[in-house]
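Friendly challenge for the regulars: who can give me the structure tokens for this chain first? No prize, just bragging rights.
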Amino acid sequence: MSKNINPLSKELIQARLGEHPWSESIHVFVQVSSTNTLAKELAAQGAPSGTVLIADRQTSGRGRLGRTFLSPGDVGVYLSALIRPECAPAELMHLTCAVAVAMCDAVEAAIGFRPGIKWTNDLVVGSKKLGGILTELSLNSKSGLVDYAILGIGINCRQEAQDFDESIRNMACSARMVTGKDADRNQLAAEMIRALHRMEETLLTGRDEMMARYRADCITLGKEISILRGEDVFHGSALNIDAEGALIVRLDTGEIQTVNSGEVSIRGLYGYI
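First reply, four minutes later:
Bragging rights claimed.
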């Protein structure tokens, strides 16, 4: 695969955005340890809502539950956006779901296909992972309200199957593998920003619509799943997703449980999904 084609560029992303409220708060880096980590540092220094960090490569990319998110150069878009919603944390239980729907919109607008969502935070095509999402909150110790939220997303764009580490090759994909051609990473970054801004504008008032769209995109619903809770493994089927983004599961015992993403990991009984 040819490298250094269509490099990420602040100017090109801004040109594709046109007039946009976040356009002047975009920062593009050749390499960072983690865009989420850097975004949190800037947030603590008072960076405004709408600050966006984009990296060509991350040396310490992070996923949910402390997992590593591989972020090699020239092949993906690794983006973190800072927002300051000024609300109680309980009002943002659906945040990761909202970001996932926004990223489906962005991929569809920029590349021409709509990925699915594997509950709770992975973008997938078929049974393979296209991208991941990591949202993080910080609270104001005095008010108890959210000080800021970091919306972190990584999307695979230009990899061929052999570019992935052998350990994840059978469960990862890229936009190129789906479409057979290179994605315009600057266009994708612009659409990601545009979709996140739209999401942010209705985050607290449009939850019902967001969650309806999330359910429509979520490929976990109706699937047989395994729930890993510590050393214990439970099997069942995914029935629904509630208004806060929790998964409602019928266990094989017949018991109905509500599963929160912070409590468990979920994998399909067969393969990644």
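The first helix runs from residue 10 to 17. The CA atoms of residues 84 and 148 lie 4 Å apart. Your move, everyone else.
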